[in-house]
Design a protein that fits this description.
The structure holds two protein chains of two kinds. Chain A has helices at residues 2-29, 36-39, 46-56, 62-74, 88-123, 128-141, 145-159, 177-215, 218-225, 230-242, 244-255, 262-267, 273-283, 286-314. The radius of gyration of chain A is 24 Å and the shape is globular. In chain A, helix 9 packs antiparallel against helix 10. The longest helix of chain A is centred in the middle third of the chain and has 39 residues, at 177-215. Chain A is built from 14 helices and no strands. Chain A is mainly α. By secondary structure, chain B is an alpha+beta fold. In chain B, helix 11 runs antiparallel to helix 13 and helix 17 (505-518) runs antiparallel to helix 18. Chain B starts with 12 loop residues before the first strand and ends in a 5-residue tail after the last strand. Classes of the chains: A mainly alpha, B alpha+beta. The interface between A and B is large, with 52 and 60 residues.
Chain lengths: 321, 582
C-alpha cells in the first residue's frame, strides 16, 4: 500500500512538469499580455509600459521566464501577482478558506441526502416516490448552476428572507462570535442549496443504479433466503458493495473542492477562488493562473489517491501491491 | 522674491482667470483649533452627523499605494484617504485650493509656488509638510517605481523641477510654460514620508509592493476624510470618519458628516442593482437602458434617479490608415477623406441613441464630450444621417455602384472590410451591428467580428493588422492628456501610430496645436487652440464618433447633499443622512 502511494506521488512530478510547461506556453503564446488594458490608457507612455514589462520579467525569452518560475515554484515561491503586487500565495490563501467552507458543507449536505435517497429509490423501484425522485433528479441535473443561483437570489430579494449573495453582512465586523457564525450560515443557505442539490441528483441516481445492480446478485438472494432481516440484507451486504463506485466519485469531488464552484461564486458574490482565478485568466495575470493550475492538479491527484485508499479499505478484494 | 514680480498673493487661477473664489473669501472667517484656515465646502444643506454610506465596486482594489495605483478600482478607494493639492469644482470645473491653500505663477509661466495649508495632519498626528510633497515626487520619479504619474509630470520630454522653499512651500519649474500645469501637478496627492521613506530606500521593487492589499489598513496613513478600518478581500472595504479632518461646512463644523463608509465588492452590475432595490446599498450608477424602469420605481422604493450629465468617454468607429497594417486598395479607401466622410454620413446615430442607449445618449461629432463645458466646441462640422449626401461623396471619390448593388472603387474592387470590437461589451456589439447594416445601404460589404479584448489591443498597438474597429476611450477635462492619441508620433494615434513625421498636413497642424496649447498658460487661448483641433478632427474624420452616453445616478432619498453635477455626484465630505438610518 505504502509503495503504491509513493509511486503515485512520484508520478505527480512529471505530470506537474508537463501541465505547467504546456499551460505556461499556451498562456504566453496567446495574443496580448497583462498590460493590454494599460496600453489603451492615453496617459500611460510607452516608456512606462516598457518599464513595467521589465519589472514583471515579461521582456525575457520564454524559456528563461518558465525556468525562473519553475525554480522559484520548487521552493514554494509562486511569485507576485502582476495586478495586485502581492505574493500569489497570499492572494490565494485570502480566498481559499471561503471556497473550502462552501464546498465542504455542500459536499456533506449532498452526500447526507443523496445516499439515503438513492437507497430508498432502489428499494422501491418504479414506485411513486422513486418516479418523483427521478423526475426531480433529471430536473436539477439539467438546471445550470448560474440559473438556479440567480433564481434563488431573485427569490431572496422578493421575500427578503435571505441575503442577496455575499458571505457576510455589513455589520459582520461588529458582531460577537456567535453572531458571525449565524451571519455566515444565513449567507450559505442559497449557495449550499444550489451546489448541494446539484450534486444530490447525480449521486442519488448513481447510488440507485449501483444498488439495483447489487440487489440482483446471487449473494443477496442467498442472504434473503436464509431468512436475514431485510434491513441487514440491504445495509450490511448490498450497500457496502454498491458504494464502491461512489467512492471513486468522492475522490473526484475532493479534487474539485477548490475549483468546482467557480461559476456559482461569481454569480453569488461568494468571495472565493472562483472570481479571482477567472479574472486572472482574463487579465493574463500569469503567476496567479499558474499557481491555481498547480493547486488544482495537486488536489485532483490527491483526491483520487484518497479515493483509492478508501476503496482498498471498503473492499477487501482490492489490493495495490 | 524679486523674481516674482507679477505674483499675486493668494491668487486662484481657475482656468486662467485670476479670480477670488468665494471659497477663499470665506475661509478668513472660519477656523478650527488646529487648522487656522480650514477649507470650507459649500453644500446646499448643513448636514447631520452620523450614519453609514454604502456603495459598490465591481472589482477589488489592486494596491493601497497611491503612487503605484493605476486604475479606478484602486484609486477610488484611495480617494477617501489621500487628498490632492488642488481640486476641480464638480459644478463649475474650476480649480479650487485644497491641500494647497494658495499658489502663484511667475510672469513667464515657468515657475509655480504652492503653499500648503497649515495645521493639516496625517492620521498619526504628524503635520503634512513640503517634505512629504518632495518625497512623493522623488518616489514617483525613482527609476523602477511603477507609476504613470511621471507621464503626467513630464513637460516636452523633461521632468519638472521641484524644490522645497520652506516647511509649507514648494516651488516647481518647467523648461517651457506648461498649460495643463495646475490640473496635472495640482492633482498630486502627497504620501507620508515618515511612513514610506525606509521602503523606498530598500529599492523600487520593494516600494512597488509596499502598501499592497495585504497591508494592515491601520498602517495606511493619509489625510483624507476617512480612515480605512478593514479590507476583506472579495467582500468589502470599511472606512471610519477621520476626526482630525481639515475641512469645515459653512457653519464651521468639522467635516465629514458621515460616520462610516462601506464599499461592497460585487461581482457585476446586476448584483449591484439587485442590492440597490433591496436597500442594501445607497447609490447605484444605472445604465442608460435601465433609466425608464428605475424612473417608474423611484416613488415606491423611496429613491431618486437623476437625468445626469453626459460621460467624458467617447465611442467611435475608426479606419486603419497605417501602410504597415493594410494594403491598397483598402488603404487608399481608408486614407481618402471623402470615403470617411461618406461613412460618417451613412451612420444613423439617432438609431444608435434609441436602440443601444434607449434615448439616454446624444449623437457625438468630436473628441471632446459636451460634459467638458470649457473645452467642448459645439461649432464643428456635423454628419447627420444622409444617404444621398454619402452617395454623392462616394461618387466624388470615384466609387460606383454596380447592378448587383455592391460598391466598387475606380479600379473595380468591391468595397468590403471587417469591423472588429472587443467581444463582451454588449453596447459596442450593438453599435457595430447597426453600423454594419447602415453601411450595407451604401453598398459596402461589411463583416462585423468581435474579438477578445487582448487580441484587439495587440492588433491596435502591435501588429497593426486590422481594418476598422468600434472602440471607446475614457476622457477627462484636460485635452492635453489625450496627446498620446492625437499627436502623429503618439503610441495611441490609433489610425497610424508612431509616425516619424506627420503623414498629412492636417496631422501636422494638430501636432502644432497640441505643442502650442501645452506651452500656453492663458486658458482662453488654449481653448481656442483646442477648438481648432476639434474642427480639424470633424473635417477629416480620422475617428468617426457615434454617441455620448448620459449618466443616470440613483440615490436613496434618506441621503442628502447630492446632485447630478457634471464632474461628480457628491462631495464625500458633505454627504449626510436626513434621518437616522443604519
Amino acid at each position: 500500500m505504502l509503495r503504491h502511494v509513493l509511486r503515485r506521488l512520484l508520478s505527480l512530478i512529471p505530470m506537474l512538469f508537463g501541465i505547467t510547461l504546456i499551460s505556461f506556453l499556451i498562456i504566453q503564446l496567446s495574443p496580448g499580455d497583462y498590460l493590454a488594458e494599460m496600453r489603451l490608457n492615453p496617459i500611460v507612455s510607452p516608456q512606462t509600459l516598457e518599464q513595467m514589462r521589465a519589472n514583471f520579467g515579461l521582456d525575457q525569452p520564454l524559456h528563461i521566464q518558465y525556468l525562473r518560475w519553475l525554480w522559484n515554484a520548487l521552493r514554494l515561491d509562486f511569485g507576485y501577482s502582476f495586478a495586485f503586487q502581492v505574493p500569489v500565495m497570499w492572494l490565494i490563501s485570502s480566498r481559499l478558506f471561503n471556497t473550502l467552507l462552501l464546498n465542504v458543507v455542500a459536499l456533506a449536505v449532498a452526500w447526507a441526502i443523496a445516499v439515503p435517497l438513492g437507497i430508498h429509490a432502489a428499494r422501491r423501484q418504479y414506485s411513486w416516490s422513486d418516479n418523483t425522485l427521478s423526475f426531480a433528479a433529471y430536473f436539477s441535473i439539467s438546471t445550470p448552476v448560474f440559473f438556479s443561483g440567480l433564481f434563488l437570489m431573485y427569490w431572496a430579494y422578493k421575500t427578503g428572507w435571505l441575503p442577496i449573495g455575499g458571505m457576510t453582512s455589513i455589520e459582520y465586523e461588529f458582531l460577537p462570535w456567535w453572531g458571525r457564525v449565524l451571519d455566515v450560515a444565513r449567507h450559505m443557505v442559497i449557495p449550499v442549496l444550489v451546489l448541494g442539490v446539484f450534486s444530490v441528483a447525480g449521486l442519488m441516481r448513481q447510488m440507485r443504479a449501483n444498488l439495483l445492480e447489487v440487489l440482483r446478485q446471487d449473494y443477496v438472494r442467498t442472504a434473503r433466503s436464509k431468512g436475514l432481516a431485510e434491513s441487514v440484507v440491504i445495509n450490511r451486504h448490498a450497500v457496502r458493495n454498491a458504494i464502491n463506485p461512489l467512492i471513486t466519485i468522492f475522490g473526484f469531488e475532493l479534487g474539485g473542492l477548490l475549483g468546482g464552484s467557480a461559476i456559482l461564486e461569481i454569480t453569488m458574490s461568494w468571495p472565493g477562488l472562483g472570481k479571482l482565478i477567472a479574472d486572472a485568466v482574463l487579465q493574463k495575470d500569469l503567476y496567479v493562473v499558474m499557481a491555481s493550475l498547480v493547486i488544482g492538479s495537486v488536489t485532483l491527484v490527491a483526491g483520487n489517491l484518497i479515493a483509492d485508499i478508501l476503496l482498498a479499505y471498503s473492499d477487501p478484494r482490492i489490493r495495490y501491491d | 522674491m524679486g523674481r516674482f514680480l507679477a505674483r499675486v498673493a493668494v491668487a486662484v487661477i481657475a482656468l486662467g482667470l485670476a479670480v477670488w473664489s468665494p471659497v477663499t473669501a470665506q475661509t478668513a472667517r472660519l477656523s478650527l483649533p488646529d487648522v487656522p484656515n480650514p477649507r470650507v465646502i459649500e453644500a446646499s444643506d448643513v448636514g447631520r452627523f452620523g450614519g453609514t454610506f454604502v456603495t459598490t465596486s465591481i472589482s477589488d482594489p489592486r494596491t493601497f499605494n497611491p503612487i503605484v495605483a493605476q486604475e479606478t478600482s484602486s484609486s477610488t478607494p484611495l480617494a477617501y484617504l489621500f487628498e490632492s493639492l488642488v481640486e476641480t469644482n464638480r459644478f463649475t470645473g474650476e480649480i479650487e485650493p485644497n491641500l494647497a491653500e494658495s499658489w502663484t505663477v511667475s510672469q513667464d509661466g515657468r515657475t509655480w509656488r504652492f503653499k500648503l495649508r497649515r495645521g493639516v495632519q496625517w492620521y498619526d498626528g504628524r503635520p503634512v509638510t513640503a517634505d512629504d510633497l518632495i518625497f512623493t515626487l522623488d518616489a514617483a520619479f525613482t527609476e523602477g517605481v511603477q507609476s504613470s504619474l511621471p507621464d503626467v509630470w513630464t513637460v516636452a520630454g523633461k521632468k519638472i523641477g521641484y524644490r522645497k522653499i520652506d516647511d509649507l512651500t514648494v516651488e516647481f519649474r518647467t523648461d517651457q510654460p506648461f498649460g495643463p500645469f495646475l490640473r496635472s501637478v495640482g492633482g498630486l496627492q502627497p504620501v507620508p514620508k515618515h511612513r514610506l521613506e525606509s521602503t523606498l530606500r530598500r529599492g523600487a521593487a520593494d516600494f512597488n509592493r509596499s502598501w499592497g492589499i495585504n497591508t494592515n489598513p491601520r498602517e495606511l496613513v493619509g489625510n483624507g476624510p476617512f480612515v480605512m478600518h478593514a479590507y476583506v478581500p472579495g467582500q468589502r472595504i470599511l472606512y471610519t470618519r477621520n476626526a482630525k479632518y481639515w475641512k469645515v461646512d459653512k457653519r464651521g463644523q468639522r467635516l465629514p458628516y458621515l460616520a462610516r463608509i462601506v464599499i461592497e465588492i460585487v461581482p457585476n452590475v446586476e448584483t449591484a442593482r439587485l442590492k440597490f432595490h433591496a436597500r442594501d446599498i445607497d447609490m447605484y450608477a444605472a445604465r442608460p437602458r435601465e433609466y425608464a424602469e428605475l424612473l417608474r420605481r423611484q416613488q415606491a422604493e423611496n429613491f431618486t434617479i437623476f437625468d445626469g450629465p453626459p460621460t467624458f468617454g467617447t465611442e467611435f468607429l475608426i479606419f486603419n490608415q497605417n501602410p504597415a497594417g493594410v494594403r491598397p486598395p483598402k488603404l487608399t479607401w481608408f486614407q481618402n477623406v471623402k470615403f470617411r466622410q461618406a461613412v460618417a454620413h451613412g451612420i444613423d446615430r439617432d438609431a444608435i441613441v434609441r436602440q443601444v442607449y434607449a434615448g439616454r445618449a446624444t449623437p457625438a461629432w468630436g473628441p471632446v464630450s459636451p460634459a467638458n463645458r470649457f473645452f467642448f466646441n459645439p461649432n464643428v462640422r456635423k454628419y447627420p444621417y444622409d444617404l444621398a449626401r454619402a452617395e454623392t461623396l462616394l461618387r466624388e471619390a470615384g466609387f460606383t455602384r454596380g447592378a448587383d448593388g455592391a460598391l466598387r472603387d475606380a479600379a473595380g474592387n468591391v468595397v468590403e472590410f471587417v469591423i472588429a470590437t472587443n467581444s463582451g461589451n454588449t453596447d459596442r456589439e450593438a453599435i457595430g451591428n447597426l453600423i454594419r447594416q447602415d453601411l450595407a445601404k451604401l453598398g459596402m460589404r461589411v463583416t462585423f467580428a468581435p474579438e477578445a479584448f487582448n487580441t484587439l489591443v495587440g492588433k491596435l498597438t502591435g501588429t497593426f493588422n486590422w481594418e476598422a474597429i468600434v472602440l471607446g476611450l475614457t476622457g477627462g477635462l484636460e485635452p492635453h492628456n489625450g496627446q498620446n492619441v492625437w499627436r502623429s508620433n503618439g503610441s495611441l494615434h490609433m489610425w497610424w501610430p508612431r509616425q516619424e513625421r506627420p503623414a498629412t498636413d492636417w496631422e501636422a497642424e494638430i501636432d502644432r496645436l497640441f505643442d502650442q496649447a501645452a506651452t500656453t498658460i492663458d486658458q482662453n487661448k488654449r481653448r481656442q487652440l483646442y477648438n481648432r483641433w476639434q474642427e480639424i478632427v470633424a473635417e477629416q474624420v480620422p475617428v468617426i464618433y457615434t454617441a455620448t452616453q448620459l449618466t443616470q445616478p440613483a440615490f436613496r432619498n434618506t441621503l442628502a447633499n447630492f446632485s447630478a453635477a457634471p464632474l461628480a455626484f457628491y462631495d464625500l465630505e458633505t454627504l449626510y443622512y436626513r434621518t437616522p438610518y443604519r
